[in-house]
Amino acid sequence: xxxxWTINKNGNFIYLFYEEKNAIDDTLYVLLEKNYNRRxxxxxxxxxxxxxxxxxxxxxxxxxxxxxxxxxxxxxxxRKGISIAPPHYTTIDYYExxxxxxxxxxxxxxxxxxxxxxxxxxxxxxxxENKIFTLKEDGIDVVLSIVQKNKKPIKSNNLLVTIYTxxxxxxKINSIPYYVDYNWNWTTIRVPFKQKGKFIVExxxxxxxxxxxxxxxIQ
Length: 219
Hints:
By secondary structure, the protein is mainly beta. It is 5% helix and 54% strand. The protein folds into 2 domains: 4-104, Immunoglobulins (Immunoglobulin-like, Sandwich); 109-218, Immunoglobulin-like. The strands form 4 sheets. The chain has a 7-stranded mixed β-sheet with strand order 1-7-6-3-4-5-2, with no helix packed on it. The protein is elongated, with a radius of gyration of 20 Å.
C-alpha cells in the first residue's frame, strides 16, 4: 500500500481494494476523477469501473490500468449510488526515465492542430463558422472543432476545455471534460456560454498537455 505511484509510459495496473466489517453482497461502483490541469485544482470524471466481492464477502478488489500521470480522486458507491467511504486521493507520476521521451512529444505533437468555432452541427456537417456569436436568453452552445491537420491521432481519451476571460486578469469561467476516441484525428464538442464577453478557449489532453487555444466573442 502506497500513497503515491510511478508508472511507465505504457501504463501499469494497480489493485484497488475495499473492505468493511459488514458483508459485501454486491458489486461496487468506482468513480475515477483526475486533476487535468496544474492551474486548476478541481477534479473531473475520467473513468469508472467495478470492484468484485471476494467469496468471503469481506472485501472487494479489482485492478485498474493507470496510463496517465496526475492527481486522482477515487470514490466508491453501492448499487444505489450511495457513497460508502470517504474519497481516496493518490498521485501517479511517470518514472524519471520516461520524461525524456515524453517531453519531445509535448513540444511538437499538437503543433498542426486547429480550433474552429461553428454555430451548429448536423450529422457530420458543420455550419456557421465564426468567432462572434449572439447570446440567447438561456445561453448558447457553440460547436468547437478540433482538427489535427497532419492526420495524426489526438492520442487522448479525454479532453479538458477551459474558458477564460480575454483580458489582463484572465479569469477562469468554466472547465468541462469530454470523452473522445484516442485514435481520432478530429472531433467536435459543444462548449456552453452563459454570459456576454470576449473569451479564450484552451484545450488540454488527459496528460495536462496543452493542445491549442482560440478566441471567441459572445455578444
